[in-house]
Design a protein that fits this description.
Keywords: DNA-binding, Transcription, Transcription regulation. By secondary structure, the chain is mainly α. 67% of the residues lie in helices and 7% in strands. It is globular.
Amino acid sequence: MTKLYEQYLERIRGKYGLSQIEITIIGFLYNNPGKDTAAEIVELRMLPKGNVSQGVELLVKKGFLRRNTDRTDRRKVHLSLEETAIPLCNEIEKVNQSFKEQLLQGLTQQEKETYEKINRQLMKNIEKGMNFDEK
């Protein structure tokens, strides 16, 4: 499934000259308001810290991201999308929709609803598991 999704994103990557990790970071920030630090991207997407740090650095240099120091904790850096990232986000959104349509092709409406329900529960379970170490 991951390979198919990467194939869907290939055209966008080429058009904007971005790596897979850079596309992943932009997509994450666009789709997860309030989750805006590199640490959250690493934790929630289960990506290597070094890859995310390097991707963020490149996206800042390319003008797609901006770093903002937290007002109460100067050690914490929030990431925000620049205006130049909005057309890219719109293209990623279209690709996501096409990918989802391909993935669910041939399923009945009831099967699609069941898939969505199971997927939501799996995400909740993953979040619980990610928080398990904190307790």
